[in-house]
Recover the amino acids of this structure.
């Protein structure tokens, strides 16, 4: 028996009453969040502000969506270069995902719902809107903690939040047939600033700093918070983009839900994170330009898509 200990993904408890700015709990959590993002690109969050009712109704609403006909799922719901629906993709036959742009706006949820369900679907519309509103607070807290831990001004944090677009994503994986791959999604990093994921069925793994895979648990109040390529640019490579993957090993369909954030305006690497030790690594960054670039041949051939797009 070896005495080798594997590293773990840090877990931060946001349910504590003491998790308020300026408290000791908050200040130490800021350090844990920053080191976890720098080391692994992510961490686990315990967060109980998404009610069980909203959690359950949003998963049901997502199941409802994935049960639709292929034609309904492929209806165009946004002009942005964001996958409104993705499925039947080469190499990942088990995977499907749906994205609702601007889920914090009830009106936009309604517009989305009316395109997909011309007769309406109040459960879908209300659930995704409530889910996003209850979860976005965690996104704000984490970003605030990142700004605080680097000693950056709060007005910079506020201006980042003001120019953020959100997408709520649902994921579904069917079980593999005999002889079929169990890879739900191959290892990758997300293009987003931050992705906050909850899974209803296990399968999500994170590649830690030491190259070990860490399996994320299942609970309505457990979220994986991950930095994406855009956070790497913003932080001038201080923060890693979290490498993750999904394996389907259970005999039931897997569902998960994520809240992803994107920079709505051209973003520069944060000036306060550029110094002699950390020279400027990226040019200015157009997030939607990056999403358009992402599936080009040049991007696919490159060693690192983000470096190929705006690296120095
Ligand atoms: O299914 C999940 O939980 C994550 C899926 C994923 O990583 C992706 O589509 O980018
Ligand atoms: Fe991902």
């Amino acid at each position: 028996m070896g005495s080798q200990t594997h590293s773990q993904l840090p877990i931060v408890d946001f349910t504590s009453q003491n998790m308020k700015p300026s408290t000791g709990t908050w200040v130490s959590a800021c350090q844990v969040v920053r080191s976890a993002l720098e080391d692994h690109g992510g961490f686990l969050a315990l967060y109980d502000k998404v009610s069980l009712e909203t959690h359950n109704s949003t998963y049901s609403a997502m199941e409802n969506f994935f049960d639709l006909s292929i034609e309904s799922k492929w209806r165009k719901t946004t002009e942005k270069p964001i996958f409104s629906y993705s499925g039947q993709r080469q190499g990942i036959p088990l995977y499907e995902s749906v994205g609702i742009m601007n889920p914090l706006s009830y009106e936009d949820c309604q517009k989305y719902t009316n395109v997909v369900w011309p007769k309406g679907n109040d459960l879908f519309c209300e659930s995704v809107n409530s889910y996003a509103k209850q979860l976005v607070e965690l996104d704000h807290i984490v970003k605030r903690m990142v700004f605080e831990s680097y000693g950056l001004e709060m007005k910079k944090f506020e201006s980042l939040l003001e120019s953020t677009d959100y997408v709520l994503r649902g994921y579904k994986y069917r079980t593999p047939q005999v002889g079929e791959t169990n890879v739900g999604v191959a290892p990758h990093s997300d293009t987003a600033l931050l992705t906050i994921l909850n899974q209803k069925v296990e399968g999500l793994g994170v590649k830690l700093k030491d190259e070990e895979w860490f399996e994320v648990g299942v609970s309505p109040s457990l979220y994986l918070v991950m930095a994406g390529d855009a956070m790497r640019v913003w932080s001038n490579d201080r923060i890693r983009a979290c490498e993750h993957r999904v394996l389907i090993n259970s005999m039931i369909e897997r569902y998960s839900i994520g809240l992803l954030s994107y920079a709505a305006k051209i973003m520069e690497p944060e000036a306060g994170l550029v110094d002699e030790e950390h020279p400027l690594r990226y040019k200015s960054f157009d997030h939607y330009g990056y999403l358009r670039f992402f599936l080009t041949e040049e991007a696919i051939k490159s060693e690192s898509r983000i470096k190929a797009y705006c690296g120095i």
